[in-house]
Amino acid sequence: MSTQSAPSGGNNFLRNLIREQIDSGEHQGEVVTRFPPEPNGYLHIGHAKSICLNFGLAEHFGGRCRLRFDDTNPEKENQEYIDSIQSDVTWLGFEWDGPVRYASDYFDDLYALAQQLIETGLAYVDEQSSEQARENRGDWNTPGTDSPFRDRPPAESLDLLARMKAGEFDEGSCSLRAKIDMRAGNMNLRDPVMYRIRKAAHHQTGDKWCIYPSYDFAHGQSDALEGVTHSICTLEFEDHRPLYEWFVANLTLPASPRQYEFGRLNLNYTVTSKRKLKLLVDEGHVDGWDDPRMPTLAGIRRRGYTPAAIRNFCDTIGVSRSDGVIDAGLLENAVRDDLNEHAPRAMCVLDPLKLVITNYPEDGVEWLAAPGHPNSDAFESRQLPFTRELWIEAEDFREEANKKYKRLVLGKRVRLRNAYVIEAEDVVRDEAGEIVAVHCRYDPDTLGDNPADGIKPKGVIHWVSATHGRTATVRLYDRLFADENPGRGDVGEMLAGLNPASLDVRENCPIEPGLASARPEDRFQFERIGYFVADRYDHGPNHPVFNRTVALRDTWGKSGD
RNA sequence: UGGGGCGUAGCCAAGUGGUAAGGCAUCGGGUUUUGAUCCCGUGUACCGCAGGUUCGAAUCCUGCCGCCCCAGCCA
Fold first, then answer.
1. Which of A8, A63, A321, A330 is most buried by its number of CB atoms within 10 A?
2. Rounded distance in angstroms from the CA atom of residue A344 to the C1' atom of nucleotide B5
3. pTM metric for this prediction
4. In the predicted model, what is the mean pLDDT of residues A277-300?
């Protein structure tokens, strides 16, 4: 794992605002934030932005950031998600303050707060069905109408709530609602539901409850009970803020947290909707939540991305209240930057073509030293076996080519990376006329030197010994979606946008021998190809498996040849 | 047609009355045993539009346009 820490980053509206608050003594200068995922899916790259923001703000101002599961909907949540979320946050390099928390830790407190609100005449048990309630809520152009149960005596609501809790009523038969304003322009204020009946076991509280608090009632109060000062969420919760504030104002609470919103991350060529990601998994379009093509943190990790790259990425894109779409290339750039600096170099051939050095002894072997990194001597150098027969990349040879082609051409010279200069002299074909080998001669005086005639070969190609190399399975991943905006429409549109070439598995790719001893999650740059990671699960010494994280930047490929 | 937001170069994004940061992308050039990296250079941004206030406005006011979110007993 990279040890590079994310840069401190630039300013954003939240940093400025908190700075001002600290100057004016608000919250006694304290900054307490929280990352509040619902454990109903795996974390994705969008969550990384929120994580970096919440933990980053706390870190920047010497505050604290907690991890709190927003677990108020047991039917969609489970332990697997809880485990994965904790592991992802930890992997990103953040440490939450104190124990892992759950909104369900406060179910007793929340229940008492609900009773308090009933007693002050600000909440009531509504016996309308959800359908009736929906009809009476009205719409944007029609004010809602009060529930017939709206003005029932507190004692009656108190009793009914107790019986809801005791399991006396069916799901959907009644709910506890805050008494605010059925004619409010903001729909969230039209007597929002605080408790609904769900006869489902909860992953944390088991069968203790059959009524569960809604997000709006649970979230802000959990913040208050925990002493959170800055409750940061995404823009779509903006019109929940008046409700958030209404609860804080009308309840007796130990603190007055405030909500702030920022624009969620949108990345092109991908989807960041938990529902859609879950569908990709459930329908088998990918091999699980941690498929290296998934934008989940687990997937991105398996793809070979580093925590530092993700943190740098989040830092680069900034935080604001406008909703934009970030180019996926920026994320790719972030890993390239990190891996270029931290990944040792190695050689691997994806599409092997035999190269025979006719003037090299039949069983000759030389172990050539090659640097681990071209721009840093902090990397251990490696030994490469050089032999008469080598594998080179099929696309690195042409019988003839124009001047722009800088690789091996018949009658021309090229440098073998970390080794000698060779000149191609002949080609061997099979019955079908396909080239099966290239014959060449090498210049023994060119190890670390230019040819005696002073003419430097224009190109350099990579290679692996055909007799001493090992082989590996190499998985070439590309973007999961070919469609730039696969999340725009319905599920059908999303599936239509899948990239059919998102995975290209190459078996038996020659690799330099040292690569076989890589450990899972070791990262490398396969020179001239891209960055690769030994698969976290499938890689082993007897069966090396590498995943392509991202290809090298290729300015030549763009302009063609 | 209700409520809430957002609009600064191709993409992000600073900037809150004094005359437009930065990053990425792009396009040039240099170095290079990775067509990588690295280095240097490269942008006339009608600051959404139209008015107004002011000596002076991206920043204040008015009107308009465009885009996003909200009618779950989901979060």
1. A63
2. 47
3. 0.96
4. 98
